[in-house]
Design goal:
5-stranded mixed sheet, single chain, alpha+beta
């Protein structure tokens, strides 16, 4: 399955770009096993509970910003999820087309996780909360485009450099929903309420409305 090999090569590219030589070598050996023996268990084993990737995460300090670190981790996680899904299908003897991938991978989330002041009830969402909310469909589409067009390396570069225009577009759409719902968007996770000064700030979830550009606060 060509999509499987392309996905593995995309994973290796990110590891190479981030100077994770040890892990890039592991993926490289699994690519060679796939090419020689059509072996998918090599990669699946590395991401199992006792595999060498079980605790892997890119180091935030190695990136120019927390924002870039977040999107790179999300992108790599998306490729890992794709690899696991495709590997499972291969083991079961199924063939997967691009239409199936587009319909079932990287689906948008309906829930924004933010915060609420327990003293006055004011709602907040940080910039990172917004990025968590929008990242899955953006990355899913970029990965699918790369698989279909043979341009996954280019799509990876666009996400890692934060130059995908849809990132800012979707951020603005999510922020508009927040404004319409009286959710204050902050740069960092709030530690003190901007309204009453309370430090009683707890996580809170908001459901995306399908009828209007708002979020619906869920019960605590």
């Amino acid at each position: 399955m060509e999509f499987y090999e392309i996905t593995l090569k995309g994973m290796k590219k990110i590891l190479d770009d981030c100077k994770e030589e040890q892990y890039a070598e592991i993926v490289g050996k699994c690519i060679a096993k796939w090419q020689s023996d059509r072996d998918v268990r090599c990669m699946l084993t590395e991401f199992a509970d006792n595999g060498r990737f079980r605790t892997f995460r890119f180091r935030s300090a190695d990136f120019s910003s927390a924002e870039q670190a977040f999107w790179t981790n999300q992108l790599f996680g998306g490729l890992v999820a794709m690899m696991i899904q495709l590997g499972g299908f291969i083991l079961d003897g199924h063939t997967v087309g691009i239409d199936f991938i587009r319909s079932n991978f990287g689906r948008p989330t309906d829930v924004l996780t933010g915060y609420q002041c327990k003293s006055c009830g004011k709602f907040f969402a940080s910039a990172l909360d917004i990025d968590k909310y929008i990242s899955l469909p953006i990355i899913g589409k970029r990965i699918a485009d790369g698989l279909e067009n043979g341009s996954l390396d280019d799509e990876i570069d666009i996400i890692m450099s934060l130059s995908a225009p849809e990132i800012e577009k979707e951020r603005n759409r999510a922020k508009l929903r927040c404004i319409n719902t009286n959710i204050t968007v902050t740069e960092e996770k709030p530690v003190m309420c901007q309204s009453c000064g309370s430090k009683r700030i707890d996580p809170h979830k908001f459901l995306r409305s399908v009828k209007a550009p708002v979020f619906v606060p869920l019960n605590s």
